[in-house]
Amino acid sequence: MESSILHGVQGYMYPNEMELQWSILIVLYPFITGLVAGAFILASLERVFRVESVKPTYRLALLTALAFLLVAPLPLQLHLGHPERSLEMYLTPHTASAMAMFGFVYLWYLMAVLLLEIWLDYRREIVELARTTTGPLRYVYRLLTLGSNDVSEEALRVDERAGFVVTLIGIPSAFLLHGYVGFIFGSVKANPWWSTPLMPIVFLFSAIVSGIAAVMLLYMAISRLRGLAVDMRCVDTIARYLFYAFIIDFSLESLDLVHRVYEADESFRTLDFMVQTQLYLPHIVVQIVLGTLVPIALLALTQLVNLTERARRGIYATAGVLTLIGIFAMRWNVVIGGQLFSKSFLGYTTYKLEFATREGLLPAVILMILPFVILWALVRLLPPWPDEGKRAPAAG
Amino acid sequence: MNSDRREFLERATHLLLLTGAAQLAFDAVVRGEPEAAPNYKTTDHWWAMAIDVDKCIGCGNCVRACKQENDVPREPFYFRTWVERYHVPDGDIEHPQVDSPNGGYDGFPEKYRPGDGAKSFFVPKLCNHCAHSPCVQVCPVGATFESPDGVVLVDKSYCLGCRYCVQACPYGCRFIDPRTSTVDKCSLCYHRITRGLTTACCETCPTEARVLGDLKDPKDPIHEFLRTHKVQVLKPQMATGSKAYYNGLDGSVR
Questions:
Q1: Which of A153, A200, A286, A334 has the fewest CB atoms within 10 Å, i.e. is most exposed?
Q2: Residue numbers of B between 4 and 63 with CB closer than 8 Å to A
Q3: E strand or H helix at B98
Q4: pLDDT tens string B162-207
Q5: What's the CA gap between A299 and A312, in Å, rounded?
Q6: Global pTM value
């Protein structure tokens, strides 16, 4: 056992540091919550800032946020040594702990923001569906009305106003949800790879980038599946926002990088060596070049040159996929990269990704597929296309 | 009636055979729980450790004693305390060569020769029992805490096994016990020190390189040690309020 653990260790690690504490599941956690926050912020663009052109994605973005939010705690739960004790975080939280607040931020966001906003937005249709649907689904819709069957104009106006207020509260909540995930890492002073006040804001902007890219891709894919033309005005606008958000995100990450290189504190040589060797592929190649510079260049191209719709769609799809890969790599490099070097700054270890174990690749893949299954069910239950309510469920 | 009589006989026998603290201990043994320390007041103590780098000979007694006393997993890479060997070339304290084969459990095989232009020394490591512990700060449920007498402890029946504290400790002093899936660390032999004994590592150290001290006890020799030596804590820039005081700590040690 000793030799198998020592294999892949270079230099000196403290004895208790040989094994990594946080696995690929903890990589998924900021990736998934990032998609939630980003998708929600895209949805609120339409609602609060009245960007009419992104309207076709409004409901899809909300449902996407919900589907991913429902899955967000699962990787954490699976990772815990004692998942049966996780409720203690709610019952006896340690208020000094950034992690303890996760439960509360999560619940607030799920119950007070997302579910409420979706319900208010869909209420008219839910009431209608509760009347017209037959079979067991009818009872589901009846339950979803929560006993509120008033769809008079006055009631709908109240819904609209309330929904607006919820979105207003929702934007800072989405910022909180993901900014705080960054704080969990950024506040660990023992770890120089994590410890920076920029971490929450870098996490936030990368979240916005990933959420916008995900909704854009989903919208294009679903339109294709439904045999409908992609609303180009909509995706052009989304791609423009993706481009702007990406520029801010990249500037922040570059600032962090330049600061580290220029300051070159006691940890710099160790971290620099790690980036040049073990993290070269995931950090330099995948995250920075493929996942950031290439999509930014592609998106810039669509802003500068007049391209055909077909070419733009191809570029958006490519840029979107690369963006998601890049943001995933960023989460990987933060979580895994932060554990590859010794806190003695004298050595390195390697992460051995297992396959069919509790924290292996297989559960991670399943957890990444799960939100799409949930989204599929949500889209069937609550069709996001109000004008084609009858067609959509079958096609969704 | 019958059971009352049996109870009386049992109590009378105990009283005859055992007295005072021993009787309390017997009850604890019957209950299968650790013995309470009835005469120990947590507020009367503030524990620390004095470590003299020059006195450590790297024998590994402390590592072995700790594993045995505290039922630490025997396989490598689970340590409540361990010993590091530093080998520092002249004038290059930024690039020390460090090793700790099996945490020093089996001692250190000869590796460096005198006169090779470098200095060598051993550094015992353990939880620093920080007064402002980053590990305690991050625990989401308060399963790890600072006791009133200055010891960082873990309630294993409460620990979620989230490993945040392992990440937060700057000194690498925590690990997850694979048998319980909860965190484990040096408890400063709390079960011993609350009963007037010293820790297992200090007890077995042949050179008194590590000595337990009570900073609230004015007669404790640790006061003289701190007065008469130039001491340092590990990673002082972390500002954790570390209470493991090292004499003769080289600048290369981290």
A1: A153
A2: none
A3: strand B97-99
A4: 999 999 999 999 999 999 999 999 999 999 999 999 999 999 999 9
A5: 9
A6: 0.91
Is residue B6 within a helix (H) or strand (E), and if so which, with residue range?
Answer: helix B2-17
Cβ proximity of B129 and B47 under 8 Å: yes
Question: What residues contact A231, with CB distance under 8 A and at least 6 apart?
Answer: A56, A223
The length of chain B is: 254
Contact A102, B138 (CB under 8 A): no
Where does residue A382 fall: left (phi above 0), alpha (psi -120 to 50 degrees), or beta otherwise? beta
Helix spans in B47-199 (H) = 61-70, 134-138, 164-168, 190-193
Q: Which residues contact A370 (CB under 8 A, 6 or more apart)?
A: A71, A74
Say what the pLDDT of residue B25 is: 59
- Would you call A81 and B161 a contact, using CB atoms and an 8 Å cutoff? yes
pLDDT for position B63: 98
- Residues A204-224: tens digit of each pLDDT: 999 999 999 999 999 999 999
- Is-contact A287 A329, C-beta < 8 A? yes
Q: Using CB atoms within 10 A of its CB, is residue A99 exposed (0-12), middle (13-18) or buried (19+)?
A: buried
**Residue of B77, B100, B160 with shortest CB distance to A5:** B77
Phi-psi region of A134 (alpha: psi -120 to 50; beta: other; left: phi over 0): beta
- Nearest alpha carbon to residue B79 among B123, B127, B27: B127
User: Are the C-beta atoms of B129 and B243 separated by less than 8 Å?
Assistant: yes
Q: State the sign of the Cα–Cα–Cα–Cα dihedral B152, B35, B161, A204.
A: negative
Domain boundaries, chain A: 21-235+356-386
Question: What is the DSSP secondary-structure string of A196-254?
Answer: -TTHHHHHHHHHHHHHHHHHHHHHHHHHHHTT----HHHHHHHHHHHHHHHHHHHHHHH
The count of CB pairs under 8 A between chains A and B is: 128
ipTM of the complex in this document: 0.93
Question: What confidence category does residue B31 fall into, taking pLDDT thresholds of 50, 70 and 90?
Answer: low
At A217, the amino acid letter reads: L
B74 touches chain A (CB under 8 A): no
Alpha helices by DSSP H, chain A? 2-6, 24-48, 58-71, 73-79, 88-91, 100-107, 116-132, 137-144, 153-186, 199-225, 232-263, 268-276, 294-304, 309-335, 361-381, 392-395
State the CB neighbour count (10 A cutoff) for residue A295: 27
The C-alpha atoms of residue A292 and residue A373 are separated, in whole angstroms, by 28
Q: Indicate the residue of B138, B162, B172 with minimum beta-carbon distance to A14.
A: B172
| A337 CA: distance to closest CA in chain B (Å) | 13
Q: What is the pLDDT of residue B18?
A: 59
Tell me the Ramachandran region of residue A22: left when phi exceeds 0, alpha when psi lies from -120 to 50, beta otherwise: beta
3 state SS for A336-366: CHHHCECCCCCEECCCCCCCCCCCCHHHHHH
Distance CA A174, CA B24 (A): 56
Compute the distance between CA of residue B23 and CA of residue A291 in angstroms, rounded to an integer: 70
Q: Which residue has 């270890």 as its token pair?
A: A349
Q: Are strands B81-89 and B97-99 parallel, antiparallel or unpaired?
A: antiparallel
| Category of B172 on φ-ψ map: left (φ > 0), alpha (ψ -120 to 50) or beta | left
Residues of A in contact with B139 (CB under 8 A): 94, 97
- Give helix then strand counts, H and E, for chain B: 8, 11
Q: Which two tokens stand for residue A95?
A: 């208020």
For domain A21-235+356-386, say whether CATH 2.40.30 is its number. no
d(CA A218, CA A320): 10
Nearest CA in chain A to B99: A12
Q: How many CB atoms lie within 10 A of CB B19?
A: 9
